[in-house]
């Protein structure tokens, strides 16, 4: 699918992977709607990106909020062709820790943002995308979802995070098969350890330890590298129903502690 003059929704668009992806889309001629809960950063990001970029406040874990946000995009741009779901939360907590059992809401809170939030975007946009006239190859749209290598290499304390990202991987082929006759592709990117605001609070020595874990290149991933893969997925119409690791060959070990 070509990106020029296409309409894209990018969740988590105010920072990190989302903002980098939105920037790449704007530079390639797309019209972009940034979804984020941080209104100040979202409006600032839209202004910085320029072009035909708008900010729409949205909580991906709330289907009503997503429905309302998608309606605003339709009013502004008429349709949607591309959905890049980059919104997500992390956190590492042992189920049985030194202070006792983890709070019961910990698991569903992470799953609701990461997994249910991804599904909410699909549910709220698929009818709109299916109304698009097919291009010369029969394509109407593409979804790019964001999982994590934790879907396969989950670490101690990541039960909720790994489950949420594993769910995204598991529904990738299912959705691709369901939407095949409509001309809609579904792909998932599994980032390794990336230099995003989620890691921004780590001290330099901690980041250096992470760098050394990556075989090559031995550094944190850059958000622009995620964005470059997202653009390639959009442009390469034969990519469908697959999850791609983007991790410098990193395979997280057991790390007993």
TrEMBL record:
SUPFAM superfamilies: NAD(P)-binding Rossmann-fold domains. The lineage of its organism: Bacteria, Pseudomonadati, Thermodesulfobacteriota, Desulfobacteria, Desulfobacterales. It comes from the Bacteria. Keywords: Oxidoreductase. Belongs to the short-chain dehydrogenases/reductases (SDR) family. It comes from Desulfosarcina widdelii. This is 3-hydroxyacyl-CoA dehydrogenase. It holds the Pfam family adh_short. GO terms for molecular function: oxidoreductase activity. InterPro entries: NAD(P)-bd_dom_sf (IPR036291), Sc_DH/Rdtase_CS (IPR020904), SDR_fam (IPR002347).
């Amino acid at each position: 699918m070509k990106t020029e003059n296409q309409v894209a929704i990018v969740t988590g668009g105010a920072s990190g992977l989302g903002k980098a992806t939105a920037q790449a889309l704007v530079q390639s001629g797309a019209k972009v709607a940034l979804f984020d809960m941080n209104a100040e950063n979202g409006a600032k990001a839209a202004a910085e990106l320029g072009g035909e970029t708008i900010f729409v406040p949205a909580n991906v874990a709330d289907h009503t909020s997503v429905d309302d946000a998608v309606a605003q995009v339709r009013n502004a741009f008429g349709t949607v062709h591309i959905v890049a779901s980059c919104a997500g939360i992390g956190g590492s907590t042992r189920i049985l820790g030194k202070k006792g059992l983890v709070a019961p809401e910990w698991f569903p809170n992470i799953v609701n943002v990461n997994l249910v939030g991804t599904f909410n975007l699909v549910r709220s946009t698929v009818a709109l995308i299916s109304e698009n006239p097919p291009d010369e190859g029969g394509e109407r749209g593409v979804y790019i979802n964001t999982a994590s290598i934790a879907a396969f290499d989950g670490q101690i304390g990541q039960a909720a995070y790994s489950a949420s990202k594993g769910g995204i991987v598991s529904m990738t082929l299912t959705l691709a098969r369901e939407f095949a006759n409509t001309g809609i592709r579904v792909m998932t990117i599994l980032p390794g350890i990336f230099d995003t605001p989620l890691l921004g609070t780590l001290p330099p020595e901690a980041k250096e330890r992470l760098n050394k874990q990556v075989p090559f290149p031995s550094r944190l991933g850059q958000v622009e590298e995620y964005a470059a893969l997202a653009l390639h997925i959009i442009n390469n119409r034969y990519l469908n129903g697959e999850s791609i690791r983007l991790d410098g060959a990193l395979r997280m070990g057991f790390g007993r502690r």
